[in-house]
Amino acid sequence: MEATNSSPEASSFVPLAEHQSRTPSSFYSGPPVLYHHSQSCKIVILERELLATPALSALRGQDGASNSTASQNEQDGDEKEVAISDVDIWVTSDKFLLFSRTASTGVSILYPSISLHALQRLRVPDTDAEVQGLYMQVATPGAPSADDEEECITMTVVLPADATLQESTEAAEEAETPTQQLYNAVSACSNLHPDPVEQGDEDDEEDGPKFISAEEHDGVFQLGNGDLPPPVDGSSGWITAENMDQFFDADGNWIAAGEPPSFPLGPGAGTVRAREGENGVDENEDEDDTKWRKTD
């Protein structure tokens, strides 16, 4: 979450309808796409979380700043909610932006920081009407909490009562509301910024073999999980059924260059079974000393 004093301008973004109507010249450059824009919104947030987040607290302007200390003393320990009015919302493919024209300050939020967003029914402070809003959990920088979970704040974006559906080339659902459209916009942009994959997150990395690059080990691939012995020198990998004849003769004797492997190869390693001839007779055996025969 980062504070900004520059008001976003519509000309800085490509409207979603325009973006959907043509193929962009590049998917990696150009201005961000504007998925949603609403003016005169309200941000509903707990007083204590607002005071702990200077960038958001600045959206209240001078009046809110002057009353912050008194409010904190009066409401210490209370779960009091406050509403910040006249906030513009910009949902772009790059960041989620909040800007207060009254306070001339704003906040930019990276999508990976939005750990949860959902539709919510709530009452705005100092009003009696129940409205629909976009509930959000936003991670905040700082030390982990006592239970090792990431610290976050929760806030709800409430669109103005006269908000209408915005233009899009995609057909809207019959019962879609402006707040649902806002939710869909945040969902679409969040999907453009997936959380980075950390080591050990994926099942195939946890359960399967982990290979170390050949460049780091003299051109020989090695397993990194310790489940198998190291490869034989000069084999460029592992001894398999396809290349066994390069290392063992028909009697299982080592014929390759260098020392034979010192690790146990397991039962049957190096043994070459001759092909069976007609009637199941081993071609390496005399007919009078038959080892295998077919039975009807």
UniProtKB/TrEMBL annotation:
<feature type="region of interest" description="Disordered">
    <location>
        <begin position="190"/>
        <end position="210"/>
    </location>
</feature>
<dbReference type="InterPro" id="IPR011993">
    <property type="entry name" value="PH-like_dom_sf"/>
</dbReference>
<dbReference type="InterPro" id="IPR039924">
    <property type="entry name" value="ICln/Lot5/Saf5"/>
</dbReference>
<dbReference type="GO" id="GO:0005829">
    <property type="term" value="C:cytosol"/>
</dbReference>
<dbReference type="GO" id="GO:0005681">
    <property type="term" value="C:spliceosomal complex"/>
</dbReference>
<feature type="compositionally biased region" description="Polar residues">
    <location>
        <begin position="64"/>
        <end position="74"/>
    </location>
</feature>
<feature type="region of interest" description="Disordered">
    <location>
        <begin position="60"/>
        <end position="80"/>
    </location>
</feature>
<protein>
    <recommendedName>
        <fullName>Regulator of volume decrease after cellular swelling-domain-containing protein</fullName>
    </recommendedName>
</protein>
<keyword id="KW-0539">Nucleus</keyword>
<feature type="region of interest" description="Disordered">
    <location>
        <begin position="1"/>
        <end position="23"/>
    </location>
</feature>
<dbReference type="GO" id="GO:0000387">
    <property type="term" value="P:spliceosomal snRNP assembly"/>
</dbReference>
<feature type="compositionally biased region" description="Acidic residues">
    <location>
        <begin position="198"/>
        <end position="207"/>
    </location>
</feature>
<feature type="region of interest" description="Disordered">
    <location>
        <begin position="252"/>
        <end position="296"/>
    </location>
</feature>
<dbReference type="GO" id="GO:0045292">
    <property type="term" value="P:mRNA cis splicing, via spliceosome"/>
</dbReference>
<keyword id="KW-0963">Cytoplasm</keyword>
<dbReference type="GO" id="GO:0034715">
    <property type="term" value="C:pICln-Sm protein complex"/>
</dbReference>
<dbReference type="Pfam" id="PF03517">
    <property type="entry name" value="Voldacs"/>
</dbReference>
<feature type="compositionally biased region" description="Polar residues">
    <location>
        <begin position="1"/>
        <end position="10"/>
    </location>
</feature>
<feature type="compositionally biased region" description="Acidic residues">
    <location>
        <begin position="279"/>
        <end position="289"/>
    </location>
</feature>
